[in-house]
Amino acid sequence: MRILVLGFTGFLGSRVAEQVHALPGARLFGAGRSPAAEFGIDLATARPDRLATVLASVAPDAVINCAGATGGDATTLAEVNTRGAAVLCAALREGAPAARLVHLGSAAEYGPGTEGSLVTESAATRPVSVYGATKLAGTVAVSTSGLDAVVLRVGNPVGPGAPATGLPGRVAGLLREAGTDPEAVLRLGDLSAYRDFVDVRDVARAAVRAATAPGPLPRVLNIGSGRAVPVRDLVGGLARIAGFRGRVEEGGAGSGRSGGVSWQCSDITAAGEALDWRPAHGLDDSLAALWEEPCRLSSRRLEGDPAR
Predict the structure, then answer these.
(1) Are 110 and 119 in contact (CB under 8 A)?
(2) Long-range contact list for 138-142, CB < 8 A, 24+ apart?
(3) What 3-state class would DSSP assign to 183?
(4) Which of 112, 127, 132, 254 is deepest in the core (most CB within 10 A)?
């Protein structure tokens, strides 16, 4: 089986690539903006006809799109998350119409959840950030493309290699700088929100299962842990693993990608039924792996969505 992974050097894409490597009989083709990419593709600027030519030369059985912008202004977010998805679909229709497309979306597309409730794929989408809105527009482009395509709406990915552009990776970096200094102070934003943290390795496994599953799949599937955890607990867990002896101060505004969303938790029942998938890693395992393996790249903003 021939599988093309876009954004294959990023936080999510690198784990997807590992899963493809381990798949018997599979051949991986890596694409993205990285110099290490076999095919240099930047979805923010790619022309559909040229991308179609690349796709025709690869003749993939499946394409897994892990490329996505999480930071930058509205133009940057729209170019990658919205235009990129639309261009990829147009190129697939011309260059590889039989390939299955697995596109990584975001739970930010749903917007605020109701405390104590799980969000299903049929829930209304009400993103409150430009990031969530551009991801939602990308999902619409994929879902209405007429291709054999599925969007995996991913919760907050965490685990080994988490980049500093997301909270878990940033906190881990701050803890490394602080060491065991009892006078150290970590100054962070509001940590009272609840999020559905899912291990990056579980996300990768879901993506590969979606790429290889027989028959048609639902247009959208939630990929998360199915549990809402206070962000404060994530920070506290990392601090314990790091042996941090200082104090954490909360205050100020949080991430622009997550502001105004106090509760987010996904119902992952449909993914279990369609993909025979369940998360295998708990949050403690994810945090331990994150501490053991820090981010391997200095910038991954356009090579996969870090935890939001």
Answers:
(1) yes
(2) 138/68, 138/81, 138/82, 138/84, 138/85, 138/86, 138/103, 138/105, 139/85, 139/103, 139/105, 139/109, 139/220, 141/82, 141/85, 141/86, 141/89, 142/85, 142/89, 142/101, 142/103
(3) coil
(4) 132
pLDDT digits (tens, 9 = 90+) for 23-65: 999 999 999 999 989 999 999 999 999 999 999 999 999 999 9
Between the two ends of the chain, the Cα-to-Cα distance in Å is 33
Query: Is residue 223 a contact partner of residue 154, using CB atoms and an 8 Å limit?
Result: yes
pLDDT (0 to 100) of residue 25: 94
- pTM, two decimals, is 0.93
- The residue count for the chain: 308
Burial class (CB in 10 A: 0-12, 13-18, 19+), 232: middle
Q: What's the rounded Cα separation, in Å, for the pair 56 and 47?
A: 14
Residue identified by tokens 């697939």 is: 92
- Domains of the chain listed by start with CATH number: 2-292 (3.40.50.720)
DSSP designation for 266: B
Which structure tokens are listed for 307?
A: 């935890």
Q: Which residue has 């150290």 as its token pair?
A: 184
Gap between the Cα atoms of 68 and 137, Å rounded: 13
CA distances from 257 to 116, 133, 134, 135, 272 (A): 21, 10, 11, 11, 28
Helix, strand, coil content of the chain in percent (nearest 5): 35, 20, 45
- Is 32:303 a contact under the CB 8 Å cutoff? yes
Q: What is the average pLDDT across 157-161?
A: 97
